[in-house]
Design brief:
Rossmann fold, 4-stranded parallel beta sheet, alpha/beta, 2 domains, 8 strands, 47% helix
């Protein structure tokens, strides 16, 4: 057994290419995950494979073609850069690996490689700042499925969220300061949306629509409540930037139906523009690397919505990507785990 520690960075995943075939393959694996669409098996199979994928594969392919760069998917590009940069930051006692929850490099193949090397310690690091069953939970469950047959299971540590890490907060604030904050009348913190039923599962007996976790953060009861950690995340960034409460709003993007977390970010763009806001800044703290949800959904689609309704400027704060301070923060999180 090696005395080394292996760090496994895991992000959501990306199609191999923006072709319809590859996008269809990605959507099939992603949307058939029982934690992503948490409805009975047969209903999920019918909904995903007979309705969603046949209708979405072609349109999603067009969107991915807008996102794609000559070097490929931005999410994959940054994942590979971060893996290398973090490896360079850590000493020889660490090996850094990278996998995607869906598609390639697959968790199965990377964990098989790790099993052969048999480190003394394995750090599982899902790259999601806020815990959610459909992202972090799904990733951890898959790790456990793949490792359950190992003859020797090393010490395993899981970094399951880091939404309140002060260095992570400061990097986002530093990226925002690349703009003159005084130029903006309002600030929006846009997080990926989730069905309300998934939030309710975290704290049985309480209803997400009536609880007050958007107003205060209770560590004892709400530490794994996605909605609560999103609002706390926004509060911490706003405090770092001295943005008063009345000048920022939390929204949720990428919804599939009406019973998802509100306010909906796209409708928020319309509301702010119609209220006379001309210049707004949008943060996307749930994404550590620029991807379809940041570059396309916010940077293009939401900007168009805002301008069509009377707004003039929407500035998107870039994600952490391969920021040197982000690599240093990852190092610190790993070493402390």
């Amino acid at each position: 057994m090696s005395k080394k520690t292996t760090v496994l960075l895991i992000n959501l995943g990306t199609p191999k290419s923006p072709s319809v075939k590859d996008v269809r393959s990605y959507l099939k694996e992603f949307l058939n995950d029982k934690r992503v669409i948490d409805i009975p098996w047969l209903l999920r199979k019918i909904l995903v494979n007979l309705i969603i994928i046949p209708f979405r594969a072609k349109s999603s392919s067009k969107i991915y073609k807008e996102l794609w760069t000559p070097k490929g998917s931005p999410l994959m590009i940054y994942a590979e850069k971060v893996q290398k940069l973090l490896q360079d930051k850590l000493d020889d006692n660490y090996t850094v690996e990278m996998a995607m929850r869906y598609q390639q490099p697959s968790m199965k193949s990377v964990l098989a490689k790790i099993q052969k090397e048999m480190p003394a310690k394995l750090i599982i690091f899902p790259m999601y700042p806020q815990y959610a069953s459909s992202s972090t939970g799904s990733t951890i469950e898959r790790v456990m499925e793949l490792m359950k047959s190992w003859e020797v299971i090393p010490e395993v540590n899981i970094i399951n969220q880091f939404f309140e890490d002060p260095d992570y907060i400061k990097i986002i604030a530093d990226n925002a300061r690349k703009n003159n904050l005084d130029d903006f009348e309002h600030f929006v913190f846009s997080f990926h949306g989730l069905p309300i039923r998934q939030i309710n599962k975290v704290h049985p007996g309480r209803n997400c629509k009536t609880c007050d976790c958007d107003k205060k953060f209770n560590r004892e009861t709400d530490y794994y409540c996605y909605k609560s950690t999103c609002y706390e995340n926004a509060r911490l960034i706003a405090q770092e930037l001295n943005i008063p409460k009345e000048k920022y709003t939390v929204g949720f993007q990428s919804r599939l139906d009406k019973d998802w977390l509100e306010p909906f970010a796209d409708k928020l763009m319309v509301k702010l523009a119609k209220e006379g806001k001309k210049n707004i800044m949008v943060f996307s703290p749930a994404f550590v690397a620029d991807c379809l949800e940041t570059t396309i959904e916010i940077g293009i689609e939401y900007r168009e919505i805002f301008e069509e309704n009377g707004g003039e400027k929407l500035a998107l704060v870039e994600s952490l990507n391969d920021h040197p301070k982000w690599i240093e923060t990852l190092k610190d999180l790993v070493v402390k785990s």
